[in-house]
Amino acid sequence: MPNDYFQFQQFRIEQGQCAMKVSTDACLLGAAADLSGATRLLDIGTGTGLLALMAAQRHPTVQIEAVEIDAAAAAQAAANCAASPWAARLTVRAQSLAELAAASPAPFSHLLCNPPFFRQSLPSPNAARTTARHESAGTLSFEALAAFAAEYLAAEGLLTVLLPPPEMQAFEEIATRHGLRPATRLVLRHRPGSRPLRHITGFRRGPGAAVAETELLIRTAQEAYSAEFRALLTGFYLAL
Question: Which CATH class for the 5-233 domain?
Fold first, then answer.
């Protein structure tokens, strides 16, 4: 079983009350997301608070809000943020994205999300894990995420999403209908020659253009962490 905590260099994630624990792909999302020009960032479905905390460490001035529909996870994320060096710039709310939208928030320069993506599979017996992992749980659909971004992302803002490739293709089609188009794509592979594991895609407003695509291998053929992986996570992991 995963530990009830994950110690990073500058902060600690307590995760005993969270259905979804710290994962490698989420850490890569937090480290790779383009935060250029970030002023006001929203972490959607924050879980443990990981993405919000990584953004706070990476960017010295950005104001960060995070929403989480599961009350226990939201409380733990709030505690993790409060215990960090950046508590003054972090706000966690136990609410759904729809509830946040109902409050008509000011536009965000950046949106980060690792949304539920199991769409055709059987739900977990654990209700909280189902909420975190399955789009069919009805808590954060691709449509709702795209619609929120279309309404509350600043004109030059960036929505960054992590999904497996088939689900990302489906999300891209939905986002395009809302006027958001992929601008960048980072393809994650476990090792050389393996199938793509996840896509980290950045979406912006405006007409479609060529997508700037790059690739990152998590491990080498010898199963050591790759140089690219080390470069991204060196400021976060205790040991690489």
Answer: alpha beta
User: Does an H or E element contain 163, and which?
Assistant: strand 153-163
The pLDDT value recorded for residue 131 is: 42
Beta bridge partners of residue 5, listed in sequence order:
14
Q: pLDDT digit string (tens) for 205-233?
A: 988 778 999 999 999 999 999 999 999 99
Give the Cα separation of 167 and 66 in Å (integer): 23
Residue (of 170, 150, 168) closest to 107 by Cα position = 150
Query: What is the rounded CA–CA span in Å between residue 24 and residue 191?
Result: 14
User: How is residue 224 annotated by DSSP?
Assistant: S
Q: What is the pLDDT of residue 179?
A: 96
Q: CA–CA separation, 172 vs 192, rounded Å? A: 26
